[in-house]
């Protein structure tokens, strides 16, 4: 009989080998649309009617072969019409793995969109034109991938056919990018020479680059290990809903429903409810209508506790042996995604997991210049696509992990309280909960904290 520990391990192994989330990024005209189209076409992930439509349009333009970039040109046309689109997601599968592809735009003004697409990615494919080498936008994409702690980065050196498939050209670009990305802290970098237009090393190995002995793009996507394991992190259970049916059949039932963000929960385990700090023991776990002894991320379950505790949406249940620290002062790195600036003194809402609280921006200590990774001190405000450090004071304590420890419970959003617009995506860093209470701006609207 399989033990519960083995069940958790088997689930983690299954997740690692069956699903890969990855994002693509590249500068304008580097061939990203063609690469995505080639990947979908050669992996036989394109519907027949889609391919026929591409063939008809290509023929009408006098092209001998289908223009695979047309498979993604619908999104491009929408951008040209001025429609704001964050990220296009595509889903496909091979016999070895399922994929969720976040297709992010390449323009400088869409840096915020790469942040959105790469925030949940296990891997990022950064495209480079072999004729141009590593350019400013390439360095920007590498910096964003490092900032978001994407575990794997693929450098796809495209248009090798236009440089006569020269190994020296590829080697120079790969060396420069690898040195830069390594300095940023990217843990794993794989460089692959390709021609998306001709299909070299995308799905099938190239006949023109016998000097390259590494994997194709698809082979690497199918075999790269997903390095993070949610079940290996400390358990975090944000409460989404309190269930109290108060029926004759269940007069005393009280359960707390939500999705386990990380870790493993077990019946009989001592837990702490945050931010109140009250403690109890897990009396039961209900999953899919049945009682279970153990549950793990990312399962959606209902947790029952041995004690009646005042718990509501936004509270966090964590093991008493390893709870996160609570704080009202948060130091974080944020990417500003809204058109209106974020200034010191701004009143915002901070949404962390299922909890939303009032907050005020106390400081903006610096803004990151992605071109050379320099810090611009005290910018006063952040505008669209800016990445900077902020200090935020919240009206109520938050149970935050560091983003370096957990991408799920270390991230948050800053929201405009007036219209609900998302202002910035944040990654929590060092928090300082022990400092004295600070009033940023006092008024009569409940923002004095």
TrEMBL record:
<dbReference type="InterPro" id="IPR044139">
    <property type="entry name" value="CysN_NoDQ_III"/>
</dbReference>
<dbReference type="Pfam" id="PF22594">
    <property type="entry name" value="GTP-eEF1A_C"/>
</dbReference>
<dbReference type="InterPro" id="IPR054696">
    <property type="entry name" value="GTP-eEF1A_C"/>
</dbReference>
<keyword id="KW-0808">Transferase</keyword>
<keyword id="KW-0067">ATP-binding</keyword>
<dbReference type="InterPro" id="IPR044138">
    <property type="entry name" value="CysN_II"/>
</dbReference>
<dbReference type="GO" id="GO:0004781">
    <property type="term" value="F:sulfate adenylyltransferase (ATP) activity"/>
</dbReference>
<dbReference type="InterPro" id="IPR050100">
    <property type="entry name" value="TRAFAC_GTPase_members"/>
</dbReference>
<dbReference type="GO" id="GO:0005524">
    <property type="term" value="F:ATP binding"/>
</dbReference>
<keyword id="KW-0547">Nucleotide-binding</keyword>
<keyword id="KW-0548">Nucleotidyltransferase</keyword>
<dbReference type="InterPro" id="IPR027417">
    <property type="entry name" value="P-loop_NTPase"/>
</dbReference>
<dbReference type="GO" id="GO:0006790">
    <property type="term" value="P:sulfur compound metabolic process"/>
</dbReference>
<keyword id="KW-0342">GTP-binding</keyword>
<feature type="domain" description="Tr-type G">
    <location>
        <begin position="17"/>
        <end position="231"/>
    </location>
</feature>
<dbReference type="InterPro" id="IPR011779">
    <property type="entry name" value="SO4_adenylTrfase_lsu"/>
</dbReference>
<dbReference type="InterPro" id="IPR041757">
    <property type="entry name" value="CysN_GTP-bd"/>
</dbReference>
<protein>
    <recommendedName>
        <fullName>sulfate adenylyltransferase</fullName>
        <ecNumber>2.7.7.4</ecNumber>
    </recommendedName>
</protein>
<dbReference type="Pfam" id="PF00009">
    <property type="entry name" value="GTP_EFTU"/>
</dbReference>
<dbReference type="GO" id="GO:0005525">
    <property type="term" value="F:GTP binding"/>
</dbReference>
<dbReference type="GO" id="GO:0003924">
    <property type="term" value="F:GTPase activity"/>
</dbReference>
<dbReference type="InterPro" id="IPR009001">
    <property type="entry name" value="Transl_elong_EF1A/Init_IF2_C"/>
</dbReference>
<dbReference type="InterPro" id="IPR000795">
    <property type="entry name" value="T_Tr_GTP-bd_dom"/>
</dbReference>
<dbReference type="InterPro" id="IPR009000">
    <property type="entry name" value="Transl_B-barrel_sf"/>
</dbReference>
<dbReference type="InterPro" id="IPR031157">
    <property type="entry name" value="G_TR_CS"/>
</dbReference>
